Amino acid sequence: MSTPNAALASRLKQQLPKLQDALQQRGWQINAIRIKVQVRKMVERSVQPKQALLSNRALKAFDELGSTLEDTPQNAALRAALQNLVKRHQQE
């Protein structure tokens, strides 16, 4: 038997005595069962980070939103995120 990974192979090894007995009861002449882990070559895909392209109008709207939010502790993280977003996209 061949398995795609070691985890499945170890599960099958635990079930081997039960499997062997069941096959022998059905008339199979089985002395032993070997399990082989079959490794497949994995093709690595180049993952490029997703980058949204924002128009100048969108950047201006985000900048305006950040400046019009109330200066409260609850809004501090949102304001900082909006400022970082605008800065990052203006640099491109």
Shape verdict: rod-shaped
Strand order of the largest sheet: 1-2
Helix/strand class: mainly alpha
H-E order: EHEHH
Commentary on this structure:
The chain is 57% helix and 4% strand. The protein is mainly α. A two-stranded parallel sheet has the order 1-2. The radius of gyration is 30 Å and the shape is rod-shaped. The model has no long low-confidence stretch (mean pLDDT 84).
Summary?
This protein has helices at 6-25, 56-68, 73-91; strands spanning 2-3, 36-37. It is mainly α and 92 residues long. Helix 2 (56-68) packs antiparallel against helix 3.
Q: What order do the helices and strands come in, and which of them pair?
A:
Elements lengths: L1 E2 L2 H20 L10 E2 L18 H13 L4 H19 L1
Parallel strand pairs: 1-2
Helix pairs in contact: 2-3
Features:
92 residues, mainly alpha, 3 helices, 2 strands, 57% helix, rod-shaped
